[in-house]
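User: Quick sanity check before I run a bigger batch. Here is a single chain. Can you write out its predicted 3D structure?
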Amino acid sequence: KIEFISTFGFYRNGNYNGATFQGGKTGNCGIGILVRNICSNIEINGCNVYGFNYSGIQVGFLGDGNSDTVLQPYNRNVRIVNCSTYNNFSQGIGVMAVDGYEIENCNIFNNGHYDANWELDGIMNPGYGITCISAHSRAINGTVKNNNVYGNNRKGIDTHGSDNLKIIGNNIYNNGISGIALAYTFYPIKNTIIENNIINNCGVASGIDSEVQGTSVNGIIASGDGVSGKLVIKNNILKDCGKNANTSRIGVDVVCKNADVDISGNALLNCGEKHAVQLKCGNGTIDNNSIDGSDYTNGLYNLSGYDLTNNIKLSNNIFKGYSSKNY
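Assistant: Done. Predicted structure follows.
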């Protein structure tokens, strides 16, 4: 097994947008392994990568330019398998400008600033396990499968720009803000499958300030008008997600009016101190879900602005322990 190691400096470096930690650490390298500039048929197998200032493993590079009118040349057919990457400042694995990629059987953990405090810090950023980076040259045709993703300060698996992404069979736990996040900022997120994942104790950072964070803490979130195409959230198990924060606490948070949503066969146990499932979407199906919670949580909550009965088909869902289903 090959090791790629960088050494953290001792000091926080900079303060950005009121955050308690930003800017990386002094005295260490940016990226452990970088794939860029039209690489094809690359496999990164069995590497141990830790302690870098940006990504442990990175496919595509924002430094090559991120014009909104000109695409970077795409890398193709990149496999990252059987690797461990951890203690990196921004993310364990980052991808962009790639057509065809697999991230499989990896351990991605403890990314983010090393002295972040989940109980006291009002914002938790960065600290991602795996992320599709916000870029005009998006990551397309990817599979993230059978990974262990845990202990990351912000999000376990995250996309800010992707097309045809499958997130399947991962074990995702103890991540501060989200287990899985589809977070539209500037670039589209199209056609996403989230299936057969186990998501436990995510969205639990208790010091988060809603005015700073600007989102819910959650097990799964899909947010923004740029989330479109088919969105499948199916046969996942979520437990103890969306808890203990000073902002909205949601188990599954789907706020994307342009997606065709299929939420089916999921089991939620004790998720969301505010709502177990929150919806604001245009079309779709919600069926055969088991949602078992507490008497202070809504089982299913429809945000204002969309007529749930006209646009969403509800069938065969089981709600237990809720004071109100609210749909």
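The mean pLDDT is 82.

User: Great, the batch can go ahead then.
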